[in-house]
Design goal:
5-stranded mixed beta sheet, about 10% strand
């Protein structure tokens, strides 16, 4: 049975509707897939950028923290240098004050005699040599000789050994120093420096090591300052 024109038109319309429906569904499917892929790519890009931003700020934070540490370290070093300078200035002032007082001690014959006795005897004990030479200021020769005469019996009794002492009459210590003595062994290679200046310098060195300092004003301080000595070996 032959199809009429109306039937043909109807079938054509039906086929076109079917094709349009298929095309519409395909378009929707493509759009949906494209949307999904877009969202996935967008999420990936957002996450990548988020990680980069986090890394950037984390790096900046570390740089800032490091900068703070460097600044703090610099400030602490500056403060430490100021403290050290203030301490050195204080030591210098105290040394100058002590030199003035030691110069006054040397002007008091009785007090200076006691001081020299301690310095001379200490030199004997430091060296423990059978023969020693003492060097002093030219103006101190007599008072040093008296200190030697007094200390030889004390030394002999303490160490059970004899000692021969010579005062150097050719080379004297500078007259401008505060006083004290230098005691040498027989060949002059070992020296005990017991000048008042060396006592002060030793006190200053001990202060720099321990961070402590005391300036006593008692009458016996100058005598007590002879309890330590500076030993030099050449």
């Amino acid at each position: 049975m032959a199809l009429t024109d109306a039937d043909v038109q109807k079938q054509i319309k039906h086929m076109m509707a079917f094709i349009e429906q298929e095309a519409s569904e395909k378009v929707e499917e493509i759009d949906a897939k494209a949307e999904e892929e877009f969202n996935i790519e967008k999420g990936r890009l957002v996450q990548t950028q988020r990680v980069k931003i986090m890394e950037y700020y984390e790096k900046k934070e570390k740089q800032i923290e490091q900068h703070k540490k460097i600044q703090m370290s610099n400030l602490m070093n500056q403060a430490r240098l100021k403290v050290l300078k203030a301490r050195d200035d204080m030591i210098t002032d105290l040394l100058n004050e002590a030199r003035l007082r030691l110069a006054e001690v040397a002007k008091d014959p009785a007090q200076y005699s006691r001081l020299l006795e301690g310095l001379v005897l200490q030199g004997f004990y430091q060296l423990l040599e059978p023969k020693v030479t003492i060097r002093c200021r030219q103006q101190d020769v007599e008072i040093v000789q008296a200190a030697v005469d007094k200390n030889i019996p004390i030394y002999k009794e303490a160490v059970k050994s004899n000692i021969i002492v010579r005062i150097d009459q050719e080379r004297f210590l500078p007259s401008g120093i505060c006083g004290g003595v230098e005691v040498y062994n027989d060949n002059g290679k070992i020296k005990v420096s017991n000048t008042l200046e060396s006592r002060l310098e030793l006190m200053a060195q001990q202060h720099r090591l321990t961070g402590g300092w005391r300036v006593s004003r008692g009458k016996n301080d100058s005598h007590n300052s002879g309890r330590t000595a500076s030993l030099h070996i050449y």
